[in-house]
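Changelog entry: the NUDIX domain-containing protein record was regenerated in this release. Current contents:
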Amino acid sequence: MTPGWQFCPCCAARLAACEEGGLPRLACSAGCGFVHWDNPAPVLAALVEYQGRVVLARNRAWAAGAFGLISGFLERGEDPVAGVAREVKEELGLNTLATTLIGVYPFARKHEVIIAYHVVGQGEIGLNEELAEFRLIAPEKLKPWDFGTGLAVSDWLARRSGV
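Regenerated structure tokens:
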């Protein structure tokens, strides 16, 4: 369970541990019916292909040399394809020409579910305030990492090479 929930957001009573739906949950101790389901947050990730290369970006909060895919949270009521196009536009300033689902991946460490797409971007790259820098990597030089969005990179490379 995600730490931090102590009180019911409906009636302010203390939350208590219980079993609901076959899993440990927190529920209202006063019996108002509130259950904290603790569902993971949906995150969109874009493997952006730009002029035949893949864009990797470094978030300002990350250590020097740490790069990843473009990503952000899916907004309430938003279609995932529209959401990934929004993230690419917000973070890189690029328009999205084509979007193909790569896959859906658990990211338990951050309590997220990643919905990853391959997108073809067009325009001129302009980083927003979240990003410090970017790199353009030839697909044959791209090395996947073994967690989070790196799993999508691995799957995309395997499909691309016909494996």
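The longest strand covers residues 95-107.
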